[in-house]
């Protein structure tokens, strides 16, 4: 099934200051999360960003914070919903599933760190809650390649669709030659 922007929302899991430097290909994952957050903002796709135990791991990396902020005439405004958690799964936190359901959207575009812990447990929670889960493999990683790969295999086996950043962008756009396509082209090149 294709990803439809009017049916999807973006969930970015724990791309945080003290964790990101230890992540395998972390810079690539961060860059792809920024691309997705930027596109989501421009296309009206709701975005949710979790932060695990902020006191210990810090807030989201600056690149994520910047991608989630838009400049308005009244000053900067956060365009995504940030929430702190202590459960490894976002769905373990009170109210998170209800918050996601309130959007009326069924397709969850899932990214983040660490793939084999918080992302995996979130994916399983979302699948259990009846959502369609699309794990963006090049926007998710762990401290080791092996843990990342094992988590992706396990999520695939349990029903998550494994996609790439460009798959999401092109499926959100649906066609070339539009103003939206031209605006997002720098994210694709």
Question: Please, could you describe this protein's structure?
Answer:
It is built from 8 helices and 8 strands. It has a single domain, classed as Isochorismatase-like (Rossmann fold, 3-Layer(aba) Sandwich). It has helices spanning 26-43, 54-57, 62-67, 96-101, 115-128, 145-157, 165-173, 179-188; strands spanning 8-13, 47-52, 69-72, 75-78, 81-85, 107-113, 132-141, 161-163. It is globular, with a radius of gyration of 15 Å. The longest helix has 18 residues, at 26-43. With 189 residues, the protein is an alpha/beta fold. The mean pLDDT is 95. A 6-stranded parallel beta sheet has the order 5-2-1-6-7-8. It has a two-stranded antiparallel ribbon with strand order 3-4.
Return the structural class.
Answer: alpha/beta
Can you identify the CATH superfamily? Isochorismatase-like
CATH topology: Rossmann fold
Sheet with the most strands: spatial strand order: 5-2-1-6-7-8
**Biggest sheet character:** 6 strands, parallel
Number of structural domains: 1
- CATH architecture tag: 3-Layer(aba) Sandwich
Q: What do the pLDDT scores average to?
A: 95
Distance between the termini: 25 Å
Give the number of helices.
8
Q: Give the number of DSSP strands.
A: 8
Strand coverage percent: 15-25%
CATH domain class name: Alpha Beta
Round the Cα radius of gyration to an integer and report it: 15 Å
């Amino acid at each position: 099934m294709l990803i439809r922007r009017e049916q999807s929302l973006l969930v970015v899991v724990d791309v945080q200051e003290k964790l990101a430097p230890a992540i395998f290909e972390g810079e690539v994952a961060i860059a792809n999360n920024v691309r997705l957050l930027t596109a989501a903002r421009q296309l009206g796709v709701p975005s949710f960003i979790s932060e695990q135990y902020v006191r210990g791991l810090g807030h989201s990396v600056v690149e994520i914070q910047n991608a989630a902020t838009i400049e308005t005439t009244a000053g900067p405004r956060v365009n995504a919903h940030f929430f702190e958690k202590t459960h490894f799964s976002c769905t373990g936190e009170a109210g998170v599933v209800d918050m996601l359901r309130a959007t009326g959207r069924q397709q969850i575009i899932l990214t983040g760190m660490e793939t084999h812990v918080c992302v995996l447990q979130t994916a399983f929670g979302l699948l259990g809650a009846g959502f369609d889960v699309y794990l963006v493999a090049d926007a998710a990683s762990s401290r080791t390649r092996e843990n990342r790969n094992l988590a992706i295999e396990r999520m695939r086996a349990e029903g998550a669709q494994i996609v790439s950043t460009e798959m999401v962008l092109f499926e959100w756009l649906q066609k070339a030659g539009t103003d939206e396509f031209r605006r997002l082209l720098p994210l694709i090149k």
